[in-house]
From TrEMBL:
Domain Cation/H+ exchanger transmembrane, chain residue ranges per copy: 2-175
One of the protein's GO biological processes: regulation of intracellular pH
Name of the protein this chain belongs to: Na+/H+ antiporter
Lineage: Bacteria, Bacillati, Bacillota, Negativicutes, Selenomonadales
The species this protein was found in: Sporomusa ovata
Recorded family membership: Belongs to the monovalent cation:proton antiporter 1 (CPA1) transporter (TC 2.A.36) family.
Compartments it resides in: Cell membrane
UniProt keyword annotations, A-Z: Antiport, Cell membrane, Ion transport, Membrane, Sodium, Sodium transport, Transmembrane, Transmembrane helix, Transport
Length: 310
């Protein structure tokens, strides 16, 4: 039901705007802001929100693909090459306008106590990629408009520069500004986790073979002792990584919370399936769990934002 209603809102707002000769695209954006800020948090359950967001995420992917396909059918390489100077000028103007808006609004937010760190301001400026919306708007211009054939290659060139130039350099920029974790530490952490899990499975397999009489207890104890020594060394290295990179510890905490949440949901489903409780009660308990998880996530996000601003 919620997916259908959001689809009706999107399509209906576009038709209503077009009927009074105003921008249908802007109307859809305004409608989505209302739905996202009021409809999702207040009028939908966590499960419904997840379904709606998943649906629109896929819809956005499909529409983006179709828009790029339409642009490819509309233009060729030569018009873009012929419009190189207008493309460069337009791209510079767009980037300058975004920089002006980001830095000026950040200054206003700082004045009221909502500080955005300067490094993140640079990222906000450079990460303003242009894409399907710009091209959809220019493709929506009536063919009778004489400037349409000029605007299409220029807009496509700006989008291409944005996706290739800014898109490929955003990761090095984030790393240079010191906003990304050390990839080597993360990879080492994941390798240690995998090795530790494999050793635990090996001990369980030894125990199973002892119970089946495939190996003797003495052989099992000797091999298990060697494995325990390896596990202790691995756990010490994991602890050092926790101390050196707080993001690793935070990620592990989030993973543990997801595991606990999944286990609780599974227990409620099994209880309802076996008749211990009604499905309505199970759904209510699951909804409460998801709400509590969202509240904890918001608290963590607010705390991280406060620590970054300080």
């Amino acid at each position: 039901m919620e997916i259908t209603l959001t689809t009706v809102v999107a399509y209906g707002s576009y038709l209503a705007a077009e009927s009074v000769h105003v921008s249908g695209v802007i109307a859809v954006v305004a409608a989505s802001l209302v739905v996202g800020n009021y409809g999702l948090p207040r009028g939908m359950t966590p499960a419904s929100r997840m379904a709606v967001l998943s649906f629109w995420e896929y819809a956005a992917f499909a529409v983006n693909s179709m828009v790029f396909l339409l642009v490819g059918l509309e233009i060729t390489v030569m018009p873009v090459a012929d419009s190189l100077l207008p493309v460069l000028v337009a791209a510079a103007v767009v980037l300058a306008a975004r920089a002006l808006s980001v830095y000026s609004l950040s200054a206003l937010l700082s004045a009221v106590g909502q500080v955005i760190p300067s490094r993140w301001r640079h990222v906000l400026v450079w990460s303003g990629l242009r894409g399907a919306l710009s091209m959809a708007m220019v493709l929506g211009i009536s063919p009778v408009v004489p400037e349409r054939d000029i605007l299409i290659p220029v807009i496509f060139g700006v989008v291409l520069l944005s996706l290739v130039g800014q898109g490929l350099t955003i990761e090095p920029l984030v790393a240079r500004l010191g906003l990304s974790r050390k990839q080597s530490d993360l990879e080492a952490y994941q390798l240690l986790l995998g090795e530790n899990m494999s050793l635990r499975v090996a001990v369980e397999e030894l125990d199973r073979n002892v119970r089946q009489g495939a190996i003797s207890q003495s052989v099992r104890d000797e091999m298990a002792e060697q494995i325990v020594v390896k596990q202790q060394a691995i756990e010490q290295r994991i602890a050092r990584l926790h101390m050196s990179d707080e993001n690793i510890a935070a990620d592990e905490q989030k993973k543990a919370e997801r595991i606990v949440l999944l286990a609780q949901k599974t227990a409620f489903h099994n209880a309802a399936r076996s008749g211990i409780m009604e499905w309505s009660a199970a759904a209510k308990l699951i909804s409460q769990l998801e709400t509590e998880q969202e509240m904890r996530a918001e608290q963590i996000h607010d705390a991280e934002g406060g620590s970054r601003s300080s």
